[in-house]
Amino acid sequence: MKTREIALLGESVLRQIAQPIDDATNFAVRELAQTMLLTLEDSGGVGLAAPQIFESKRLIIVASKPTKRYPYAPEMPATVMVNPEFTPLTDTIEKDWEGCLSIPSIRALVPRYSSIRVCYTDLDGQQLDVDFQDFVARVFQHEYDHLNGLVYLDRVENNQDIISEKMFLTLIAGELN
Ligand SMILES: [Zn+2]
């Protein structure tokens, strides 16, 4: 099992509506999830959607953990979600920084619901409900957008909310001191 190339912004697969997965317990789905987990680990990201490795299928991984880019991120086991859906639990929307493995060297402030209820199928075919807040809710909504052909830049309210990754790292280093 190997890692996969990440689709970069401009690839048409990132602009397609991904197809639902009929049987989450299918071996090919498990294999796809495994490849995505390896690719995510290799890239140091906190989430990945199947279209980002050129598979237009409704499968995402949410794997929040503290990293250089997100020092305050909560630690959670990498969670594979098949055919995920969500509903906001409140109307509260917050803006915070996001980046994307498919859009290197850029960061931007993106508005997202801060509290959501997520429904998905796991690789054993179980239907699960889980509530996410703040950073994890943000990662989920970012990955979910990839399944609908959207990237986070589509949600930026003002072009002035877009900065280089280098400036972003300077900014968070300042906040940590
Ligand atoms: Zn992304």
Could you characterize the architecture of this molecule?
- The structure is a single chain.
- The chain is α+β, with helices and mostly antiparallel strands and 177 residues long.
- The chain has a single domain (12-176), classed as Peptide Deformylase.
- The chain is 24% helix and 30% strand.
- It has 3 helices and 8 strands; from the N terminus they run H-E-E-E-E-E-E-E-H-E-H.
- A 5-stranded antiparallel β-sheet has the order 1-2-3-6-7. Strands 4-5-8 form a 3-stranded antiparallel β-sheet.
- The longest helix is centred in the first third of the chain and has 17 residues, at 27-43.
- The chain is globular.
- It binds zinc ion (ZN).
- Zinc ion (ZN) binds next to helix 2.
Largest beta-sheet details = 5 strands, antiparallel
Ranges where pLDDT stays below 50 over 5 or more residues in a row are none
Please estimate the helix content.
10-25%
- The CATH superfamily is known as Peptide deformylase
Keywords:
Peptide Deformylase, 8 strands, 177 residues, alpha+beta, five-stranded antiparallel β-sheet, three-stranded antiparallel β-sheet, globular, binds zinc ion
List the helices and strands and how they pair.
Blueprint: H1 27-43, E1 47-49, E2 59-62, E3 79-88, E4 93-100, E5 103-113, E6 115-121, E7 127-133, H2 134-147, E8 162-164, H3 165-176
Antiparallel strand pairs: 1-2, 2-3, 3-6, 4-5, 5-8, 6-7
Bound molecules: zinc ion (ZN).
Residues 100-102, 142, 146 line the site of zinc ion (ZN).
